[in-house]
Amino acid sequence: MGKNVAIFLICFAIAFGGGYLFFKNNQASRPAQNGEQTAQNGEQTDQAAKDKAIDQQQGDASDNEGRILVQRGCISCHSVSALNIQGGATGPDLSQAYVNVEGKHGVPIEEFLKKPTSAVMAGVLGDKPLTEDELKAVLEALKTASEK
């Protein structure tokens, strides 16, 4: 009986793995139909949208202070009116975030961006934290916004 169970589990694992590989490769090679997009097409569409948003913002800020906010997708939820960046309305306007974050969240803005104390931002930045260069660029953009 034990031998039969072991054979069944091995066959199941092989069949499941083979099916996964077959259908994964088949899905990637077929063209999208009926509004369906493969992950690669979705990523290309997302990148194209980000590039378009970046291009639109170039004329708004004279030295492009807010470019990093567009690149990192911050404007999906936030606007930065001081930099003439129109974004989503889900999150607060970030024009005064540089000076307000510590009072609101209990940690300096640099620490907040490294390890957010709000559940929403922890979820957003937890999956893809800012690099040191991105952190510096975001801080510079938010500082510039708060001074306008």
Automatic annotation (TrEMBL):
UniProt biased composition (Polar residues): 32-45
Transmembrane segments: 6-23
Record region (Disordered): 32-62
Keyword check for Methyltransferase: no
GO terms assigned for molecular function: electron transfer activity; heme binding; metal ion binding
Source organism superkingdom: Bacteria
Alphabetized UniProt keyword annotations: Heme, Iron, Membrane, Metal-binding, Transmembrane, Transmembrane helix
SUPFAM superfamilies according to UniProt: Cytochrome c
Cytochrome c domain residues: 61-146
Gene3D superfamilies reported for this sequence: Cytochrome c-like domain
Protein name: Cytochrome c
